[in-house]
Write a structure and sequence with these properties.
There is one protein chain. This protein is an all-alpha fold. It has a domain of 145 residues. Helices cover 68% and strands 0% of the residues. The protein is globular and about 70 Å long. The termini are far apart. The model has no long low-confidence stretch (mean pLDDT 88).
Amino acid sequence: FLIFFIGLSRVYNGVHFPHDLVTGWTFGGILLTVYVFLEKPVIIWFKKQGLVVKIAASFGLSLVLIFLVVLAKLSLAAFTVPDVWMQNAAAFFPEEAFDPLKIAGVFSTSGALFGLCLGVILLPRLGGFHPGGDIWKRLARVFIGVAGVLAIYLGLKAIFPEGEYFLAYILRYARYALIGLWMAGIAPFLFVKTGLADARAKAKKPKKKVVKARRSYAG
């Protein structure tokens, strides 16, 4: 229901056309179907691979996303943005330059995906991580984790150039890959090393069974 109503809200608010909504639902349904059928065999295959293959596969997956978006943009080389789009965008966001064909966003998504995968791959080799623990430890991990994300995001954003050109794309990919790696690998590793988390779930102590001895009386 949430997906359905969010889609309707996009049309209601004037940010998408009805055919955009139907197309999105269609592709989403196709991807969900593919995921359902391929999830288990892909996970089984992935677990059997070595470290290098796992990292290469994750990196390759992120490049596939970039390739698809670049291919889509190239197919729209002769496309001209309608004036009504420009007018509507200027009415709602007068301070922002409107460019519906920019592709910088896919480098953010792909970089974050690779960073997350890299963290998931490396963390077990670094000792593992268990999300349990005292409430104050969990809260501390939240604050430190968010602070780390903001530090990487804002710090590198101030240093790296932005724009629609090759170097900016590469640096954007690297920035978001580092954010993903922080979230899935570096931060959990630091939490374990600083005592804010355990590498493994603590084994529960078995309950002692009290065996009552029965006295037998000879009558």
